[in-house]
Amino acid sequence: MRRHVLPRIVVLLGTLVIATTAHADLSRFDIGARIYTKHLYTNDDTQGLLWLGNPFWFDQIKGGNGVGSELELTFKGRASRYVTAGARVASRFGERWQDYWESGTRMYGNTVNTSGDSVGMNRASYLKLRGTWVQVQPEWAFVDWLRVGSSDLGMFNPWTIGKLRYIDRDNGRGYFLSGHLGSQRQLTWIAAAIALPKLWVGPWWSTGLGDPELVNPFWSRDWAYATTIRWRPTEGTVLKLTADMTQDLETDLSDPDALGSTNPNCKDALGSQIPGCQSDHAVDLYTRYHSANATLQLEQELGETTRVDGTLAYSRQRIDTRLTGNGVAKNQGISPVVYKDTDAFAGTVRLAADDPWEMGLSFKAEYFNIGQDYNAIFGARREADVLLTDGFLGGGQLPTLNLANEFVDFGEAWVESCIGWHGGTGVATFENEDGDLKVDAEYTYITYNTNAQDRDVDTTYPDFLHSDGYTDIGLYDFANVYDRGRDPRSVYRRNQWRRSQIVMLRATKQLEIGRGLEIKFKGKYIRDEDYRRLDGAGAKDDDYKGNIFIARLQVAMPVTDGLKLAAGTQIDRWYETNRRGTLELGYGDDVTKRHTAFAQARYHFGGFRAGYHLEYVHKLQERQREGDQRWSVWRSKATVEVAW
Amino acid sequence: MMSFRSALVVATLLMPTLVVAGSPVKKLVFSDPAGDDFGPGSYTYPTHAVYAPGSFDLRNVEITDKGATIQFKVKLGARIKDPWNSKDWDGNGFSLQFVQIYIDTDHKAGSGFTKPLPGLGGAKFAADEAWDKLVLISPQGKTRLGQEVKYKARAMRKSVVIPRKTRARGKTLTAIVKKSDLGPIGANWGIQVVVQSNEGYPAKKDILTRRVNQVRGEHRFGGGHDTACDPHVIDILAGKAKGEKTEIAAQKRTLAYTCNKKLATLPMIYASKR
Prior knowledge:
The complex is a heterodimer of chains A (644) and B (274). By secondary structure, chain A is mostly beta strands. Chain A is 4% helix and 45% strand. Chain A has 2 helices and 26 strands. The longest helix of chain A is centred in the N-terminal third of the chain and has 20 residues, at 2-21. By secondary structure, chain B is an alpha+beta fold. Chain B has a single domain (25-273), classed as Immunoglobulin-like (Sandwich), CATH 2.60.40.1190. The longest helix of chain B is centred in the N-terminal third of the chain and has 19 residues, at 4-22. Chain B is globular.
């Protein structure tokens, strides 16, 4: 008996040793958690947890006063060393601490009361499954992995299928297959079939839902198909082909088997049999909307310090107008697609020289030419950038009408559409040897392929209703109640002959004061001209000239381990001739003066991360045609985050 | 017994050597052959396309005295990119690489650390080649990097140097370090440069390094072992660090390991002995 016990103890101890030395990366099951709390304060009477909410006309999310928390759980496990799986669960963000036990806002009798006997879930922090994925690495030659489920779609590019917004990171789901050729993986590829997002890819920001032309939107078989192939023929050369197509299918309503069919009995109004009409318990489908985008990209090393990157892009869309309502005509010109079939090209070439003379001076130059009908309907919506320039808004440029600057708080970066842009950018960067000074200087000249006279913005080209004036992203509102300027998606105008110049200087200096004082300065001048109507009555009365000056200064310093403080100011002066109006109503020369002062703190301690931003904005808009407007806004945002 | 005169003669003869060995120099240069970014010979890159071939292939290291600062330039085999937008997380303009430069300033046994920074798996330094200073060239901002070191390598904290400036240009990473943090470059310094990959979501005890498993994954190196007994280093300096092909074999030898028996040894390359 004892002879059997000893080996068992040895085996047991051995198992324990192995178990303790095995590292977490291979654990069968791993769970991570995160608690995020945000507190917004604004000196107005809006209530909510988000400065800019849903672009829809109504939501219960946005508001400048509120504090709420979110719990996120991330699961990851390994079935074997070849199979990994994961999931993310997160609570709905929207419940404020003051809500206590209330779960929804719908009350009995449709009255506001304090019963707490409310229905609905928009005050409930219910946990929702955000995404699941399984990844297999079969031991097949040329195949690296197969993924089923969620992905952020970051394997493509902003011109085709873009990486999803961070808040959407698990919403993209599909089947993905990746592989390679060559012993050194000279050629790698990914092919994917991706469920088409029903809420934003297509006319009416949907794959049928909400389209007034459709009785029974059919979206469960709408897919996008994509591939990317990366070939590295030599050490200094990379060629990349990326392509995608989307297909939005809808039912043929003349089919007697379709829900809501116009011919359920295959008889006409007189009761006669319709020739060729017969029920077969199968439904015919038509393509409501189809898009295709493709890029060929080259990365070429020219030498030790110089390189050239180029992108040639193609965009196409086909609309079946029988199945697609005209969002330009019926939605006030607010539509993510031009209402017609289109084919367009775009291209960029970027040359870069990284400190060629080893004196800290680097250069970049870019030529860009983006067709007026180019549209990456499934492209990146924000958090990406395809051009070198700092642009008008400073947050990046994307070749799509489907931008998504909503669901943000004040101070976050905004993207703008670069559809139709044609021009060039030059950037010079100097960094000194000590690494304590960096200066960037930019000049950009833009003309527009969208320049045209009498463009049809009534039924074909969306103008997004607000196409005039420099955009105020700091005090923006969706309904343009306060004249916030051009919508960043507005690239078409009935009459336009526009050209723009951007000059930008940015400098960062570190001083040996305390734990290191960092001074940042950014100055920008935009000269924006649009002659609008060129001929006819009033042609000379509507010319827009914008002289936009922006200067921002910030100082920051770590004061203890993990605690960094910053303070700064921004001064804006926008001198705009004929900022907005019409020939009929007249235009006005407006001057905008804005001063912002802010203070920030960031603190990291043992897994505890906190941030605080407090700012005061004073804005005076002196308007010639309408009354002056004044803003005096205090607002702050505090965040606390712990992950384990 | 050596006479006083003989001793004087020997001392006089040795003097220049001692002075050379201990005196500061303006520049140290080390090279590494191409194509040895495979650890002990078997490691493979993760399968995600961002890990372009050559991204972790060490080619050249220059350490230059710039007066009040010391400049470290590390050249790799591929253009250094920023696929994860490091500016969004307070980073330094690149995403993938994490280079650790270990320095033995005194070449004395019992002085310094024989364990590398947590996160390099099964690897060590020889007792007489223990490191005294460590310069981290990371895409992570100073705050995150400092916090990681503070909480995961508390005992090493005072020996770890976070550069005042880290940047990427072309294929080269550059770090600027205050000379007061390191002292002047010594001709007798021993150097080891470890190329790893930046992992923003590291294992609990690892400091921002990417693990090496037996089977590679989308974001995991392959060709190693499924426990941390293998050295989680992708490329290092080996041999005399002159970039010769023979140094590939030297790297394989020095990083060879046997789980539960033999740890890989990271050699110091002493400028004075090359």
